[in-house]
Amino acid sequence: MTQTSYRIKASFLIPLGLDVFLLLVLFAWSVLGTGAFTERIVLGVFFLLALAVFTESVSRNVSTDEEGIAIRKFFRETRLLWQEVNYAGTLIMRGKAYILLTTTKGYHVLSSAYANYEKLVADMVRHLDAERVEETLRAQVDQPVRGRSDAAAAWFAAAVILGILVLKFLKI
How do the residues of the chain divide into helix, strand and coil, expressed in percent and rounded to 5? Predict the structure, then answer.
């Protein structure tokens, strides 16, 4: 029985990790330097939020095998057998695709942020009966949505934080 694992794309995790690191540097500079109390609170909250998003993104993992699919998130895991999946569809919004799985246990959503997204979709389509798979999801195998807006936003945030660090260093 072969198991295939899918994780969040490195093209998103790398800039997000850089954001967390730069926020940590900015927060430490504020705490150790002459930062105002409000600045320390705001930077601390931003750092903790970014760290939480990064930790959640790193921990996400989807595995498929002949029996079913396992969806792992931070401190929780859901295992679904293929026969439990009643319907598999897709939703495309602003250049990003979401796989919607309706099961006997509720519904689950997977985004196109996973590496090898088209292979993940192909695995699902291969294991599910044709009447349980929406045609637009089946089309994602050949023409997957390649949303890059999350990675671009993370790189932009890194540039802004770096700019703030430079301004603080130059004391402008």
Answer: 50, 25, 20
What are the tens digits of pLDDT across the range 46-55? Answer: 999 999 999 9
* Contacts with 9 (C-beta within 8 Å, 6 or more apart), sequence order: 113, 114, 115, 151
* CB distance 6 to 62 below 8 Å: yes
What is the count of structural domains for the chain? Answer: 1
Distance CA 48, CA 38 (A): 15
pTM of the prediction?
Answer: 0.84
Cα within 13 Å of Cα(167), Cβ side: 7
Helices and strands per DSSP (H, E), number in the chain: 5, 7
Residue in 85, 72, 74 with CA at minimum distance from that of residue 128:
85
Structural domain boundaries, residue 10: 4-170
Tokens of 162: 């770096």
In angstroms, the Cα distances linking 45 to 21, 38, 39, 56 are: 14, 11, 10, 17
| Separation CA 140–CA 120 (nearest Å) | 10
Residue 32 class from Cβ within 10 Å (0-12 exposed, 13-18 middle, 19+ buried)? exposed
